[in-house]
Design a protein that fits this description.
Elements (H helix, E strand, L loop, with lengths): L17 H4 L2 H24 L5 H11 L12 H17 L7 H16 L15 E4 H8 L1 H4 L9 H13 L3 E4 L23 H12 L9 H21 L1 E4 L13 E4 L7 H18 L8 H31 L14 H9 L25 H5 L1
Parallel strand pairs: 1-2
Antiparallel strand pairs: 3-4
Length: about 375
């Protein structure tokens, strides 16, 4: 008789944690797949608008393997996070900033993913009954059929109306406060950003340290300097590997903007934050100068004086910073040429009060709209 210990419980199963589905490991590839699905549909629809647009979408959905997506997760907790994140990624393409055809394709994908959740499996799989959406997103979604009023987009309209009514009948939308209050959880996707520690920049320092025996005691100054240099080299390589280049918006009709290189983490512009900033800025300028460009003497002594004083203060502070950097042989804000740096800030501040210029009303508050760029050709001439 054997006295060796034996297992009394079944072997554990490997389960993906819910945090995986909110991390960049899942969000970034899923977002790319959704963008590819929408792009394929819009291209095929654009070549020859079909009489049954939703049938075309279902063909693309099946041919690209989207029918198997529901078998990505089986555990209830993980599956709930998987369903919520995937549907939220579809809803991102429903924003009013997207084209009507893109919004219709995203609605097709959202409805298809929701309606094809397995309901007769054994054991049963967790299904998502409601999707949290903000009230402004919900209102703009209800207005989607109204923008499909051209001959090119009109075949989509009855399908969009039917899908919206079906989702409303199923009480699919869980209405949340406006998006400027950030009611969604998590607030942004991805919430966790995964950075591999085996990138090219980290391989060399690792191979060097593994072959050298670890010294006893506190590290010497030479070891600390060498470790800092290795980390800096690894960071430079990682930044080069994850660089992202995009074409900025053309502020004027004469000069085409140069491509801008930044990090891949900044590839998705913070549209909500930008819109909130513009709304607050417009509210501030309206209170300071409600009758602009017709500024009365009293308003000029109050609102305009506040703007001029704020512009001068910011420019003066930046000039001091620039002088301190120049004394150390450094340059601040010169990476973007004339689009960045102190010279553009000075030109934007000088535009304050000049009717017709991009910075005429707010000076530095017009940098987002292109203040300080339009006058470049005149000052150079």
């Amino acid at each position: 008789m054997s006295l060796a210990p034996t297992h009394t419980t079944p072997r554990g199963q490997v389960v993906l944690q819910p945090a995986y589905f909110t991390s960049s490991l899942f969000v970034d590839p899923a977002r790319e797949d959704i963008n590819h699905l929408v792009r394929v549909y819009t291209e095929r629809y654009g070549r020859s608008p079909p009489h049954q647009p939703f049938v075309l979408f279902k063909d693309i959905w099946s041919s690209h393997g989207w029918t198997w997506l529901h078998f990505k997760a089986f555990d209830a907790r993980s599956r709930d996070a998987f369903l919520k994140v995937t549907m939220r990624l579809f809803s991102e393409r429903l924003a009013e900033s997207e084209s009507p055809l893109t919004r219709a394709a995203a609605l097709f994908g959202l409805y298809t993913f929701f309606a094809t959740q397995p309901s007769t499996s054994a054991p049963p799989l967790h299904a998502l009954a409601h999707l949290p959406v903000t009230i402004d997103m919900y209102q703009s979604l209800l207005k989607l059929p109204d923008v499909l009023d051209t001959d090119f987009l009109r075949p989509l309209r009855p399908h969009v109306i039917y899908l919206l009514s079906a989702l409303q009948k199923a009480q699919f939308f869980h209405i949340l406060p406006p998006s400027n209050l950030y009611p969604l959880s998590p607030r942004e996707l991805p919430r966790e950003k995964f950075i591999s520690d085996v990138a090219d920049g980290y391989e060399q320092p690792a191979s060097v340290t593994t072959n050298v025996p670890k010294k006893k005691g506190r590290p010497s100054k030479h070891d600390r300097v060498k470790k800092s240099k290795d980390a800096l080299v690894a960071l430079d390589k990682w930044l080069d590997k994850t660089a992202y280049t995009y074409q900025p918006h053309q502020a004027t009709s004469t000069d085409a903007p140069q491509p801008v290189t930044t990090h891949i983490l900044l590839s998705h512009p913070p549209s909500t934050t930008r819109n909130n900033y513009r709304a607050k800025k417009s509210e501030l300028l309206e209170k300071l100068e409600p009758d602009y460009p017709y500024v009365t003497t009293e308003e000029r002594a109050s609102g305009r004086a506040v703007l001029e004083r704020a512009n001068r203060g910011v420019v003066s502070r930046l000039q001091k910073i620039d002088e301190g950097a120049a004394a150390k042989g450094m340059e601040i804000g010169g990476e973007g040429g004339e689009r960045t740096g102190l010279r553009r800030v000075e030109r934007a501040a000088d535009e304050l009060g000049k009717i017709g210029s991009l910075g005429g009303r707010g000076g530095l508050l017009g940098l987002l709209e292109g203040a300080g760029i339009g006058q470049q050709s005149e000052t150079d001439g």
